[in-house]
Amino acid sequence: MAMKTGGKKMIRVAELFAGVGGFRVGLNRVKSKGGKYEVVWSNQWEPGVKAQHASDIYIKRFGNKGHSNEDIAKVSTKEILEHDLLVGGFPCQDYSVARTLSHAAGLEGKKGVLWWSIHRILKEKGNSAPSFLMLENVDRLLKSPASQRGRDFAVMLASLSDLGYAIEWRVINAAEYGMPQRRRRVYILGYKKGTKLYKEKIAHGAAKWLTTSGITAMVFPVKTPDTSKIKSFEIKGTLPEITKDFNRDTSSSPFETSGMMVNREVWTFKAVPDFTGEIAKLKDFLEPQNKIPKEYFIDKSSLKTWEYLKGGKKQKRKTKGGFEYEYSEGPMAFPDSLNKPSRTIVTGEGGPTPSRFKHVIKIGSRYRRLMPIELERLNMFDADHTAGASDIKRAFFMGNALVVGIVTKLGEELLKRA
């Protein structure tokens, strides 16, 4: 539950997989006379590298109080300060469960450690586990893996239900709600049994909660669907059984872009955004042309390479085993439109090497790449939030980050109703 200090609500936050602090930036921007968020503990650790650049930026911006730069899988739950809200943009990897939960920490493969670290914290905290969850991931989570569409998400939902949480989720494209980037991500909110929001959710029912009264629906409106199009089903079995058997006989995931779960009962439908405000334009987030360093401009000698990589193509390719196949890809916008929200920022956005996926804009007769400060604006960070790292690293950070405006909106509604 939210703490009360001086008559105001104070929601204590633990930020996992913190990166350069996207959740913290978003929650810090919540404006309310009735309370605030305070990050009391955070963790950022990049495996396999010595230099911890993202953690260094995090400390530079927010200080090192309550900050951990250790492998989260090895951090004792006792070291994690008590908190009311756990947030994190955990990597989309392998969430499957081994034959027994006592073997290999209940994981099948090393990649699952990151999600199961969240599970471990919630389980070991017991009665003092956080009242609320706010998590973010790529939208393919809802339909992975290819061999069992939706299995990973089913395992997650079942495990959270078994820990006493009701869940809602929504795939949100930030640009469809007036933000400057076409970035589709799934946002997952959890409410612990016994909280006011848990009780409200049950009382309101699935159709009302998902379309008008829920936290996400209040700040990211959707068109109300025909209630007959809201599917419902139960996730049955133990976690190892779900891992083995969930959705084996169909080719599509049962999870749509919006949904909720209570006591393993799922309701889900394809959400259609209902936004009537102004759509953002890339040109409004750019630096003046006279402030662009020369290395960001594309010279004429490499322009044809950029055009080729951005264009559509069909090629004969061969696997290492000698199997021949035809590779094809459609054309991409070149240059990127200045009158639309930007495309999704990718981690390889930095550096001068020609690429299919990097942004290229044209101002007058000159083509150029985007600068780190512009990438920060497209994720709605403050300008130069990542200053101090190399330009390539700064672009990498923004490719991994979220659009912080989404967190602010969700945070405002959660604080109001917690």
Could you walk me through the main structural features you see in this protein, from its secondary elements to its overall organization?
This protein has 418 residues and is an alpha/beta fold. The protein folds into 2 domains: 3-275 and 403-417, Rossmann fold (3-Layer(aba) Sandwich), CATH 3.40.50.150; 287-337 and 346-371, no CATH class. 27% of the residues lie in helices and 21% in strands. The protein is built from 12 helices and 15 strands. It has helices at 22-28, 53-62, 113-125, 151-162, 196-204, 206-213, 215-219, 239-245, 300-310, 372-378, 391-400, 404-417; strands at residues 3-5, 8-16, 35-43, 67-68, 85-88, 132-138, 165-173, 184-192, 231-234, 258-262, 265-269, 313-318, 324-329, 360-363, 366-369. The strands form 3 sheets. Strands 1, 2, 3, 4, 5, 6, 7, 8, 9, 10 and 11 form an 11-stranded mixed β-sheet that branches. It has a two-stranded antiparallel ribbon with strand order 12-13. A hairpin with a 2-residue loop joins strand 14 (360-363) and strand 15 (366-369). Helix 1 packs across helix 12 (404-417) and helix 4 (151-162) packs antiparallel against helix 8 (239-245). The longest helix is centred in the C-terminal third of the chain and has 14 residues, at 404-417. The radius of gyration is 22 Å and the shape is globular. The termini are close together. Mean pLDDT is 92; it is low at 94-111.
